[in-house]
Fold:
Amino acid sequence: FRLMEPDYNDTNRKPLILPAHIKNKVENKIKKISNIKFRDKKIVAIYVRYKGTDKENYHELVRSSSELKEYYPIFDYLIDQKFMVFLYGDYSYKDLQNYNNYKSIITNELIKLDRHSVCLYASLSCDYFIGSAGGGAYFPFSRKIHPKTLILNAMPFDFALPNATIVYKNAIDNKSNFIKGEKLINNFSNNYKINGHEIISNSKTLMLESLVEFMEFHNKNILERSKTENLPKVPKNSIYARYNLRISPVWFKYNSN
Structure:
């Protein structure tokens, strides 16, 4: 987990580079099913995590992604924006096939290649990374230059990756009232459970709106970003400040009602 450290590549080892034989193997497979010109395409890698099935594995279960069908609007948006979209992780390909445009999502099943090669290509080549709080999120951070990163369904509430935009899970009481975002960050930062509350996954609406805002943010120049950002302050010595992460303003808005 030293991969999480902001200075890991600088102080410990050389960053990972995608081997040429894996690059060529994946791209040749993709060319067989499409006319994609790779130099004209931006790549988005999506990592989903589904671990734990019961209360005995609660710490695993609570860190899982939203159901795959909740990602369909994200897929639609990225395809409409002409991105090349890769998917890796714990998904079921049978579930993915319920998505009308599933053949536009590049997976190892689609291109008939081993999952390790596709995972390495996607994570080490992507321009944008959309992930969950699991081991698969650290591959892109073994690179010298990290991709622009959005983490969805992050848990616990102090999960951090360098310079990423984070969308944490939500907590509701028995009347479906949300705990405010600032309270989650300040009072329950390392909690996996909160008495009297249920931890719930991000809805498809929250995920899509967070993605759109994330993309818009990264399309602005630095001056424009500083003028428009109006996020709650985080303690200077906190993990949030140390990793220079950005908690999604969309998440704060959803948790302010």
